[in-house]
Design goal:
Shape: globular
Distance between the termini: 61 Å
Oligomer: single chain
Strand content: 5-15%
Order of helices and strands: EEHHHHEEEHHHHHHH
Number of domains: 3
Mean pLDDT: 82
Radius of gyration: 22 Å
Structural class: mainly alpha
Largest sheet: 3 strands, antiparallel
Number of strands: 5
Number of helices: 11
Low-confidence stretches: none
Amino acid sequence: MASKGRRPILIAGYDFWLVSSLVLIISIGLIMVATASISAADKDFGDPLYYFWNQGQSIILGLFLILFFLKMPILYLQTLSRVLLIVAIALLVLTLIPGLGKEVNGSMRWIQLGTKSFQAAELVKFFIITYLAGYLVHHRESVQTELAGFLKPVFILAVISILLLKQPDYGSCVVLCATALGMLFLAGAPLGRFFIWLPTFIVALACLILLSPYRMQRLMSFRDPWGDQYENGYQLTQALIAFGRGDWTGVGLGGGIQKLFYLP
């Protein structure tokens, strides 16, 4: 006789462990922002908790957005998926326009809205995943049986990747591509197509690293940060020093010294 599955614990209709994980991640992140930025915030703004309050405002906005999308019917979200795709492409284009996009350390990844800015790629991830989920629901059979059905989302992903790499945002590109390929796999796309496209994807990413001087520098500094500890390896060596001081148990909340202007 088959055993019955464990009944989920619900809070107001939502999974307890999912909600608890979200609260835990948000709380840890808020504490880390506060402890890591006290000195810099006090120096730049005269308020040690400036970044703490700023992060708190963003969290409140994010929670309202979570509630908004939780109440939105999935079918309505699927209907909006094409609009979200267009918005995603538009956001990535806007980041590349001087005056609209905000440049930080040579990267055009942010859009400035008054006193606040946001990283367009974070919204784009949500929009593209929403679009792809809707596409796979409506065209699952086509994805499984027809090459064209498989290539359409791959082509869209390629366009998004090019725009991300123009910023440049190599990390978001890798995360989005890996997520999209995982979704195609779960939708039942034939393995043979992955064997064809996955090596191409890996080679393309490798070429992006090899042909970009700053990416090669980061890779080399990752291999041996102490070889260039005052330039390209500086941040990583400071991280290693922090781990060395704290060992397995750490130095206690707020007790780290790397935040005292040892890091940029």
